[in-house]
Amino acid sequence: MEKGNTEFVNGESVRLSKRQKVGRHCRRFWWLHLIIFIAVTLVIVLPVVYVGYPNIAQHDINKSSLNVTAQSTTDPAPDSMTLNLTSSLVTHSSYHPTLRAFNATVYLPDSDIPLYSFATPEIGTASSGVEEHIFQRVQLPNPDEFARFSVIVAQNETVTLYVKGKGGLKLGALPETHVTYNTPSTISGLNGLKELVVTNFTLLKTAYSNGTNAVGTIAINNPSVLTLAMGDVTQNQFVDGIQISNSTLPNFTLLPGNNTYPIYFTTNETATLQVLKKPQYQCGLLNVDIKTNASIYNGQEIPYFTQALQSATLTTELNLAPALNQAGLGFVLGKGCSS
């Protein structure tokens, strides 16, 4: 009888069945099977935890984006500003991890020159629609690049930026992993500030000490979600290349939506009369081009706001007839236009 296939029971040799032999083997070598089981489990689980899980996390981060729902720039300086930003996360991932706080840097899509950096807060549950709020003083390390960005915002309907950085990600009981952010962020732009209207234009009987001799109201539609504190904005007005006035928008803060602001003019009466002699303008309805001189905040020019406004082609119609008639100057209008 083969050794290992029998067992002595009550002093007699008994041939073992296959199941009994397996059972005896397991009893004798349980420790070996346990080691093999643990080893196989680790071979399967460790790559999933330390390779598959980080790869899935990075993939989902790569597929996510940010939608800016509100942004304000206040207390501007040539090399800094106060940023108040609200953005909404867009993701289609079925996982909702915790995103640790990290230092984010913002870039234009075609550039490796940073616009500004800020500290992001931790997001407890990174699901689609969750909002992130930033309220910080940020430095502008490259003012020329930020001015270029401001011009792009002024001219376009939408603008895409990229938020870059590295931060931790934690999902449930799994170990924390690290991901790299290169996340697109979409923000609505000013689209050229195309809707601009001057109303309530009035000639003053007595000029102010600073030379202001006319006042009015300017209505501006801001199609973006941006609030921009620009300070005192000075501009020149032209008709067919002839400068007829300069103006100031004091303490000007551009708000989202439709807004009205007081505007103060110093008109060049000689140039205005020259324009009114042209047949197309004899009734006082002028096609006016507006060119920005500067944005001044706390006594300092803010170059990125100046350049943004200068890049926009601002035009409006200005009807001088009511103001001229009210001031008793209707006689300068053409025949049939004074009433």
Description:
This protein is α+β, with helices and mostly antiparallel strands and 339 residues long. It has two domains: 129 residues, Immunoglobulin-like (Sandwich), CATH 2.60.40; 142 residues, Immunoglobulin-like, CATH 2.60.40. The strands form two sheets. It has a 16-stranded mixed beta sheet that branches. Strand 13 and strand 14 form a beta hairpin. The longest helix is centred in the N-terminal third of the chain and has 34 residues. 23% of the residues are buried. About 4% of the residues have low confidence.
Topology:
Blueprint: E1 6-9, E2 12-15, H1 18-28, H2 30-63, E3 65-77, E4 80-90, E5 98-99, E6 102-107, E7 116-120, E8 131-139, H3 143-155, E9 158-170, E10 177-188, E11 196-203, E12 214-222, E13 226-239, E14 242-254, E15 257-267, H4 269-276, E16 285-297, E17 300-301, H5 303-311, E18 314-319, H6 321-326
Parallel strand pairs: 3-10, 3-13
Antiparallel strand pairs: 1-2, 3-4, 4-8, 5-9, 6-7, 6-9, 9-10, 11-12, 12-15, 13-14, 13-16, 14-15, 16-17, 16-18
The average pLDDT value, as a whole number, equals: 84
CATH class of the largest domain: Mainly Beta
Helical residue percent band:
10-25%
Q: What is the oligomer described by this structure?
A: single chain
Order of helices and strands: EEHHEEEEEEHEEEEEEEHEEHEH
What is the total tally of β strands? 18
Strand content: over 45%
**Distance, first to last CA:** 132 Å
Q: Outline the biggest β-sheet.
A: 16 strands, mixed
Q: Give the count of helical stretches.
A: 6
User: How many separate structural domains?
Assistant: 2
User: Any idea what the CATH architecture of the largest domain is?
Assistant: Sandwich
Instruction: Please tell me what the overall shape is.
Output: elongated
What's the alpha carbon Rg, rounded to whole Å?
36 Å
Report the CATH topology name of the largest domain.
Answer: Immunoglobulin-like
Structural class: alpha+beta
